[in-house]
Structure formats: C-alpha cells, structure tokens
Design brief:
This protein is mostly helical. The protein has helices spanning 63-66, 85-115, 117-160; strands at 21-22, 70-71. The chain contains three helices and two strands. Helix 1 links the parallel strand 1 and strand 2 (70-71). The longest helix has 44 residues, at 117-160. The relative contact order is 0.07.
Amino acid sequence: MTTAPPRKPMVFEADDPTVKTTPPPPPPVIDARSADTTEPPDRESTEEDETSPRRSDAFEDGPARASQTVPSASAAPPEPKRPGWGALFLSAVGGLIALAAGLWVADALTAILWREDALGWIAKALAAIASLAAVILIGREVFGLVRLNRMTALRRDADTA
C-alpha cells in the first residue's frame, strides 16, 4: 500500500468569489425494521485498499478543485441532551460524600485541637490554605465556563448574521 505525499496547505479569503460553499449532507435515515437484518461486510473480503477509488480531498487538485467543494460551517449544532436520573443520582451521592468528608475534617480538627493546641492551630491553618486553594480552583473553572458560554453565544450570533 502506497501513501500519498502530504498536501501543502492552501489559504483563501472568506469573501473570495471563486470559493463556493455547499451545505453539509443530511444525516442518514435509519429504518428500524431493516437496521439489524444485515451484517457489516468483512474487512478481508472488501478490497478497498488500492482497487477502489478513494475519497478525494477538496484541496488535492489545487485551487480549481478547492473552489468547487467547501462545506458550509453554518450548520446548526445538535440540541444538548438533558441530564437524566443517573446524573441526578451521581450528583446526590457526590454531595453526600462531600458532606461526610467535611464532617470528618471538622471532627479531626476538633480532636487535634483538644489534644494539643499547637497541632490544632497548625491543622486549622492547613485546612484554611486547602479551602482557599479549592475556592480559587472552583472560581477559575466557573470563570472559564462563563468565557466559553460567551464565546458560544458570539459564534451563534455570527452564524445567524
């Protein structure tokens, strides 16, 4: 099996009149009655390696071929899936584990403070540092999600414009 040399990247402007966009193909329709009646062909029985024509690349033949098939990027993304009962269950169990861990830490700090004052204060300082670090990490993640939502809204507005 021979490999083709890698193609050189091509650049074109978005408002170039020679570039034509085509909408993406529609998703395949699956018929429930005939979905399980056929088996996929064996890899060994099909000889697609070198005998059948391979799918051509849009930029393979230069600018003339590139101007014919450039897929449109304005296809609507699929609707997000709603979380189900499994996600609710895992969230509730995670909350219970977090509460148990918090109570364990509070009990451990109280026990250390009762035994030895210096060790208790050191443990409280370490717990405060850990809590501060956790708050900062959560804040960074929330800030990142807000930025991601803002970028998604900007991209959606640009697609509709």
